[in-house]
Design a protein that fits this description.
It comes from Methanocella conradii (strain DSM 24694 / JCM 17849 / CGMCC 1.5162 / HZ254). It holds the Pfam family MgtC. It is a multi-pass membrane protein. By secondary structure, the protein is mostly helical. Helix content is 80%, strand content 0%. Helix 1 packs antiparallel against helix 4 and helix 1 packs parallel to helix 5. The radius of gyration is 26 Å and the shape is globular. It starts with 5 loop residues before the first helix and ends with a helix.
Length: 407
């Protein structure tokens, strides 16, 4: 039996009951037979089983939980009702949420409870997305899942080059994360379509901000009335690019956050306000963005990323800080996400200090904005060119100024 103080035991009783009831609340709302009380009791049972005597009590209670779920499902089938397989699975997971609380793993228990409740509550949305996926997209997702979750764990988690900058697991993790962001965004755009310039510009920019300016530049040649809408879309694609790069830093290198939150925050706010002023009339606009979730795209991105890491490292070793900053700026014209990821990789390997890495990431974002200017010029629309340059220029000026003050 686990020795606990009265306070610890009471706290675990309260937390397990609360989490079980939290999960059960959704089942109650969905009018299932197992609801708040059943889920609360299951979670409480799991917690008590670990406190009484491990592992026999836990095993016995788990067997009882499985038997209960089987009987509940059989009853549903006999009554020609829903067999409640999802509810049964949720009850089983809820039992082990209680087990986690019993052994003192409070944070994982809370996270799992939230995930279970979220999965239960978005049934309709998940089914709709699954139905609309094409066979090609499903196959690509499965193949990529194998590469991401089968290959990733067996990759060496240490540098394999003489300079100590190429860590295969770190590089692959960044490929998985960026490709995952692109795929989620692709599914959102495919599901809800193009609701207007703001929607198209932002969500399209998460996947490929360059595609947005290229698309609108060609559109306004035939439809000059879309000029102001096109300006807002292009600027919002820059905002989305900043959000994506900042998110990469938050997930992969939180130590960069104090250096980047203000410059990126200022750029995002200014860009958003500038775009808002130019949204005069929302019109559906379709931007053709192919699914980024494929083995080919992942390997292409991984190759580009690896090349950028090698070139950036070479620039650091040969030219020092200045060489890396120049490399980041040039890399950002090709892919600011890749440039950001390479800076993070070099920071984690100890090749760069935090200030240099942060400034390199900012410069990569600046060059991603700059590269849109010549693309906007293709439109031959002076107002569009001027407004895109003005909005992008203000974002860059604000970002550079705040970065110089902070970094």
């Amino acid at each position: 039996m686990v020795e606990l103080t009265l306070y610890d035991f009471t706290f675990r009783i309260g937390l397990s009951t609360a989490l079980g009831m939290f999960i059960g609340l959704e089942r109650e709302w969905a009018h299932k037979e197992a609801g708040i009380r059943t889920f609360g009791l299951f979670c409480l049972t799991g917690m008590i089983s670990t406190v009484i005597y491990q592992p026999y009590a836990t095993i016995a209670c788990a067997i009882f939980a499985i038997a209960f779920i089987i009987v509940m499902s059989a009853h549903g089938i006999s009554q020609r009702k829903d067999p409640n397989l999802t509810t049964g699975a949720a009850l089983f997971v809820t039992f082990f949420v209680g087990v986690l609380i019993g052994i003192g793993q409070m944070v994982p228990a809370v996270i799992i409870a939230i995930i279970v409740t979220a999965l239960l509550s978005i049934k309709t949305e998940l089914q709709s997305i699954a139905v609309e996926l094409t066979a090609q997209e499903v196959h690509a997702a499965v193949e990529f899942g194998i590469l991401a979750f089968v290959i990733y764990p067996i990759l060496p988690d240490k540098p394999i080059d003489p300079w100590g900058v190429i860590n295969p697991r770190t590089i692959w993790l960044m490929v998985v994360l960026i490709s995952g962001i692109g795929f989620v965004n692709y599914i959102i755009m495919k599901k809800y379509g193009s609701k207007g310039a703001a929607y198209t510009g932002f969500f399209g920019g998460l996947a490929n901000s360059t595609a947005i300016v290229a698309e609108f530049s060609s559109r306004i040649k035939a439809e000059p009335a879309l000029t102001m809408i096109a300006v807002s879309a292009v600027i919002l694609s820059d905002v989305a690019m900043c959000v994506r790069n900042l998110a990469l830093c938050i997930f992969l290198a939180p130590s960069l956050l104090p250096k980047l939150i203000v410059p990126y925050g200022v750029m995002i706010v200014i860009g958003g306000l500038f775009a808002y002023r130019h949204i005069m009339k929302e019109q559906p606009v379709t931007v053709r963005i192919q699914s980024p979730f494929s083995i080919r795209n992942a390997l292409v991105f991984g190759t580009i990323f690896l090349i950028m890491v090698i070139l950036s490292a070479a620039a650091v070793f040969e030219l020092g800080r200045a060489g890396f900053l120049i490399s980041s700026f040039l890399s950002g014209m090709v892919s600011s996400a890749s440039a950001t990821a390479s800076a993070i990789a070099l920071l984690q390997s100890g090749t760069l200090d935090i200030n240099t890495a942060a400034m390199g990431i900012i410069l990569a974002s600046m060059s991603s904005i700059i590269v849109k200017f010549p693309l906007a010029y293709v439109s031959n629309n002076k107002k569009f060119i001027a407004r895109v340059a003005l909005g992008g220029g203000i974002m860059m000026a604000a970002g550079i100024l705040t970065a110089i003050l902070i970094i």
